[in-house]
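Lab notebook page, bench 4
Experiment: in silico fold of construct C2
Operator: M.H.
Input chain length: 545 residues
Purpose: comparison with the prior construct
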Amino acid sequence: AALALWALLSALWSSGAAAPVLEAERGLLYATAAAAALLLVGRGSSVPLLGGLVAGAVVVALYALGTRLFPGHLGGAYDPSSGYQLAEPIGYGNALGLLCALGLLLAGGLAADGTRTATRASAAAALVVLLPTLYFTFSRGALVALAAGALVQLAVAPNRARVLVTALVAGAPAAAAVLYASRFHALTNAGDSLTTAQREGRQVAVAIAVLAVAAAAASVALGLVDRRVAFPPRAGRALVAGLAALAAAGAFGAVVALGGPLDAVDRATASFREPLVAGDGAVQRRLLSVSGNGRADYWRVAWGTARDEPLLGAGAGSFESEWLRERRVAFHARDAHNLYLETLAELGPLGLLLLAGTLALPFLALRGSRRAPLAAAAAGAYAAFLVHAGADWDWELPVVTVPALFCAAALLSAERAEGGRRRLALGLAVPVVAVALVAHVGNRAAAASSAALEAGEPERALAEAERAVTWSPWSADAHVLRAEAELALGRDGRARRSLLQAVELDPASWSAWLALGALGEEGALGRARRLNPLGPEADELQTER
């Protein structure tokens, strides 16, 4: 809540209030989600919450996987030339991959520690759905997050041997599903025909169904063995140590093959700064690439902003404007793809301290909660989110941030006292919900106005834009939407006044200055060009005039 308030206060020194208010609204949403989880989840009752997260991730993954295995029947039109990363229904492949990673870690915990046979079997079957879905996203960041979360889960778990054995036994069918799916060209490469993709998809779907049943059966068998055979603690420690030694040996061999640690670091750094190479359509090749896909440039701009504004930052949501001014490539970006660096650039050291302090709180509860049911799995999933947020824009995606906050709440609920914390959570949630409902009216009106403009309905767009201005009078974007609707209706004079109001509210609104330039406003095109030097629109308008 303090972080959201600090984001709101940044409107005092930001170029405009719209972005800080939007960031504060998002922060209040997350505060409400955390408060709701703390209110509803009592001591020992976090298992249904985390099980529900697994179920939700599986439902999303089933739809996403269905769009790949049944193209032409599920999802939009078959278009393998558009990147071919699995992204729907979220719309962003890395976010879908992260959601699957969170589900995998929680499902692994349920398969290892579930009290009921049916729960363990269902969790094992879920692995066979979630892992192939993650694979088809071709998300390297999600795989790194999954590995980091698994290491945290293993480090925290009091029964490491059981977790490892369950991962090996129940996870084997999921790994087999990925290996089998990777053999089919039309499912992993752009450019094949719809008929070929449908035929191969049916084969993989049957294999996944069979392997899911096999995983469930293996989990049941493992449970029966666990009840009848005592696993010596020394054997468990030996298993963990052996796997750790094997991993260390593999890492050492990779470093030696690359010419030593210094050469390995130099190569990785150089490769990270390079763009993804456009290949022959084999999108799974990106899994072997260490390219940052532009992140080095995003981080350069964010660090430059933090250096230029070392005390307060440039204001919440300001990265987009900074990127337009400082970018070296004509590529649009709204976020720095690093939550922590972006927070430092936008909200200064105090904002970063508030963020880091908030996100660290659940780990402080681990000492008292690590033996609670699924605590290790929740810690692993939460750690996976924190790692992934350091290389992507997860904070702007509630579909992955809210599940991570629920994992954090599960860790806290295992240690907290019931009454006082619940009253505190309820006291926080009620006013925040009221604020969110009021803000939602303006946001929804703006979205409706934009949709009406795209649909060619200027009268409805103007009515919705007027409502957005009424409920969000601080938003330059609402005034720009009203101007666009007025222009579509031939009311140029009114549109000019709306745009002047927009640039008064946000002098860094490049789109408003460009629209004013199109109406012949003196100096507007030059202002737009300075705010977005690589954008061709101002020059094109100048040429036309």
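Observations: DSSP finds 24 helices and no strands in the chain. The mean pLDDT is 84.
Next step: discuss at group meeting.
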